[in-house]
Design goal:
single chain; mainly alpha; MetI-like fold; 2 domains; 13 helices; about 0% strand
Amino acid sequence: MNTLTLGRDLLVGVLLVPAVVLLLAAAGERALHRIDHRVAQRLRPWGWLTPVLVAVVAVLVYPTVLTLVRSLRGADGTGFVGLDNYLWALTGDNLRSLLNNALWVVLLPLGVVLLGLVMAVLIDRVRYERTARSLLVLPTAISLTAAGISWRLLYSWSPEGRTQLGVLNAVLTKLGLSPVPWIARPPSDMQWLNTVALIGVGVWAGLGLSVLVLSAAVKAVPEELLEAARLDGAGEIRVFLNITLPFVWPSVLTVATTQFTAAVKTFDVVYVMTNGGAGTNVVANQLYTELFRYPSDLGHASAIAVLLLVVTLPVVWFNIRSIRREAL
């Protein structure tokens, strides 16, 4: 993409589209002033919502329907192949990607929630609370791409006897231990641990936001209930399980569902650190590979995209339901 094309796209996105929306809204308001007041009051909300609905249909609904249709067609975009593309996406080499995504879905929310709860409870009891919270939140200011590059350097591994460029392995060799191929284990050496190492990067990146949300929830727990439980002889673990945890549970669910969604569509960390190599491939990275390396076969990429959408929709529905329940 050259500079002229980029400038044109920025002009359209930043200036032209908002200008068209404002002109349509102004024209609608002017037309409403010329009709009966009662009728105008009923039509005014639709006049303002119409540009938004048109944008939603153009940007979200139409591409979704088009992707669904293409997922049922052959590689050239013509001919009905039924569920063949979905069978391909759920079998063969793609099965490894699905299993890795399952690891992400289980370990990422679990790690972020557990560590976030521990950190939120602990920093609530120290004098340097603001400093501790600021340090924990710092990773959220770093993009996942930058985090992946940094951690790839930390995980860097060389065979034993050579100079270790990675910080972690350099420390291990100084301690007299063997270097660990954190994200480069061969297939015969518990290769799934490569994915676990990548999940650790995801936990590190998502911990800051988790601590912010859970720390605010912990502070909202009535202090008198905590003091009453302690006076009755309850230990700290029992106080946490019986009083603190029920109060912060809605926030725990919010963090867990957010991280679940992030785990389902995880891409940045895997692409930057291994590009799916060493048995670490995930569904989103497979989608990228099919879409840009083999652009002539849109059926496979479309099937993967639909599967990601189907897996994510229940979580979105659960979040909407929880928000409505809290609003009531």
